[in-house]
Structure to design on (614 residues):
């Protein structure tokens, strides 16, 4: 049971201020949290700060009762999993190879049978078993996102951060991936934060929403509360109407204002 | 079949595929090592004097049984050259493989990015002017000079990789700029050199195994023996780097530090090989590409096979350099360039095709 909290976080890229004294209430484990906000609102930057890939100029990232800054880079990254979504290079590495890399976490030279079974199982469960021997350079955008999700989920961690894991996926796979992430977070009782652009998906899958805009947290809380907050329409610059779908789920409709 | 059994069968299938590939990798590396051993013997046989294959193997394995003539020809003359080709080929193969990995650039190798010309220039400083970049290192100052200049050049390359928007092709252009800079400086050295020094400089530029001796082979073996295990120990980190800098960082790789350490290692490999056999082009480019095509880029297979491929190329070149015209030994640098350039051009064209798609 380790929650994640952010207190007084400030960060700038050179002279450009991204965050100024940002606070996020403790994010509870075992639930899925969605991070929403317009482009360039700092979602990716926030993830990098939480995982320690970027250093904040001020503030504290709390992991349970602990300050995450006291952990070594390796220890912190093994407790807070953040996996970028795309492969940069057309490397001659297969999907199995790159998932094995996430399984090994750079430790030990040899690959044991346990490691191999774990990777095989993760690939099968992630629905990408048929891609096992494909080179990562040949994957489509959607496929490489699914591989990244499997890479992120293969090892136990206290916090999982997903940066737009569904942006390149078709409808079927969007639902499958978010369902998989949600199940994993619940089963492992871990903190799970997903950055999403699609507010309807956020409303459907998340138990908790955080709205980011202009380097601040504009609203946080239950989906119904955050989605009907006036700050949402304001920060996106659109008019928003909330309705109910055929299965009583929340539907978000946006109109150009 | 139940769902559970079905899932298990699927997982088994996936794991079997990976096991098969791992076993194939081990078999290929073993096979390459065996072929290399045969090539060394062939290299020793090639040349004047009638030596049989098995007799040569016997003399190499049990030196005590050899006649004095065989001892001189095989142990004193031919074997140092043959082994030098193997060790330097392996060094260049490793250097090329790691440069391609850390710079994320398929065209990178010590020669195309200007490290080898830089090392040549460092050596020239020592030969012509008697300058030592680091004072007080004594007799090995030719090698030390070559290393220091190569290292400084790789720091310049490292700085370029830190700049935003520097593409693969731009890196090669930077390499060409460095290449011409050091060639011009080398020409400057030649202009002021005496005839004896000039002969020595030409030797650097053409690349030749003729001056191989047992101590030089020993130094190369030590350098490779330290750096290859180090690179192998960083296998996962180096493989991770090929997924992209961000992904590697998220797995806990300290990307800048790893790049810097590996570049230092590559500079050392380049400097030592240039100091002893001169600038040998394209072995570091072709070797890793052959390895990549065969076993992919998991460093645990890629690195050993790059080393073996480099060693095989240089060993083959050494055989060819003696076999083309009986009685004449051509400088091997010329031959590797002639073989390597078409390969290099085809890589650039393949690169272009990818951008067009």
């Amino acid at each position: 049971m380790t929650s994640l909290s952010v207190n007084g976080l400030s960060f700038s890229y050179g002279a450009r201020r991204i965050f100024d004294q940002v606070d996020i209430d403790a994010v509870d484990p075992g639930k899925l949290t969605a991070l929403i906000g317009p482009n360039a609102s700092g979602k990716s930057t926030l993830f990098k700060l939480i995982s320690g890939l970027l250093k904040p100029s001020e503030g504290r990232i709390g992991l349970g009762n602990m300050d995450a800054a006291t952990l070594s880079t390796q220890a912190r990254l093994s407790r807070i999993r953040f996996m970028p979504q795309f492969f940069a290079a057309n490397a001659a590495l297969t999907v199995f190879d790159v998932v094995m890399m996430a399984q090994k976490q750079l430790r030990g030279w040899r690959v044991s049978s346990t490691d191999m079974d774990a990777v095989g199982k993760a690939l099968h469960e992630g629905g990408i078993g048929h891609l096992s021997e494909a080179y990562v350079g040949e994957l489509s955008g959607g496929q490489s996102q699914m591989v990244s999700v499997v890479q992120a989920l293969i090892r136990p961690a206290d916090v999982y951060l997903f940066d737009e894991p569904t942006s390149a996926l078709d409808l079927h796979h969007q639902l499958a991936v978010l369902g998989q992430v949600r199940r994993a977070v619940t089963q492992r009782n871990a903190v799970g934060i997903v950055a999403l652009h699609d507010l309807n998906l956020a409303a459907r899958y998340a138990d908790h929403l955080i709205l980011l805009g202009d380097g601040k947290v504009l609203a946080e809380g239950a989906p119904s509360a955050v989605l009907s907050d006036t700050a949402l329409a304001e920060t996106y610059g659109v008019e928003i109407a909330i309705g109910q779908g055929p299965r009583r789920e929340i539907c978000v409709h946006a109109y150009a204002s | 079949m139940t769902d559970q059994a079905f899932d298990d069968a699927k997982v088994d299938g996936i794991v079997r595929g990976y096991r098969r590939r791992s076993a194939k990798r081990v078999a290929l590396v073993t096979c390459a090592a065996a072929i290399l051993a045969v090539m060394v013997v062939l290299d020793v046989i090639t040349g004047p004097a009638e030596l049989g294959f098995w007799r040569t193997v016997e003399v190499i394995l049990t030196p005590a049984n050899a006649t004095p003539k065989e001892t001189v020809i095989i142990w004193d003359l031919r074997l140092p050259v043959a082994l030098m080709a193997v060790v330097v080929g392996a060094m260049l193969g490793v250097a090329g493989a790691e440069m391609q990995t850390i710079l994320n650039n398929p065209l990178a190798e010590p020669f195309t990015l200007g490290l080898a010309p830089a090392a040549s220039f460092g050596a020239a400083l020592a030969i012509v002017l008697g300058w030592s970049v680091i004072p007080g290192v004594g007799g090995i100052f030719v090698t030390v000079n070559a290393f220091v200049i190569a290292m400084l050049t790789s720091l310049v390359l490292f700085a370029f990789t830190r700049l935003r928007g520097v593409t693969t092709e731009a890196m090669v252009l930077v390499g060409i700029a460095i290449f011409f800079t050091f060639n011009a400086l080398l020409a400057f050295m030649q202009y002021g050199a005496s005839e004896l020094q000039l002969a020595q400089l030409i030797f650097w530029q053409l690349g030749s195994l003729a001056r191989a001796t047992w101590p030089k082979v020993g130094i190369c073996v030590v350098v490779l023996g330290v750096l290859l295990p180090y690179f192998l120990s960083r296998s996962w980190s180096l493989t991770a780097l090929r997924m992209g800098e961000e992904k590697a960082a998220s797995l806990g790789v300290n990307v800048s530090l790893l790049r810097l350490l590996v570049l230092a290692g590559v500079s050392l490999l380049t400097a030592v090989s240039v100091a002893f056999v001169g600038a040998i082009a394209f072995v570091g480019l072709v070797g890793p590409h052959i390895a990549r095509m065969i076993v992919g880029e998991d460093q645990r297979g890629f690195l050993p096979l790059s080393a073996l491929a480099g060693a095989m190329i240089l060993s083959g070149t050494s055989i060819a350099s003696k076999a083309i015209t009986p009685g004449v030994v051509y400088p091997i640098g010329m031959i590797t360039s002639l073989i390597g350039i078409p390969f290099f051009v085809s890589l650039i064209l393949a690169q272009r095709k990818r951008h067009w798609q």
The mean pLDDT of chain B is 86. Chain B touches chain A through 39 residues (CB under 8 Å). The two ends of chain B are 45 Å apart (CA to CA). Residues 151 and 264 of chain B are 6 Å apart (CA to CA).
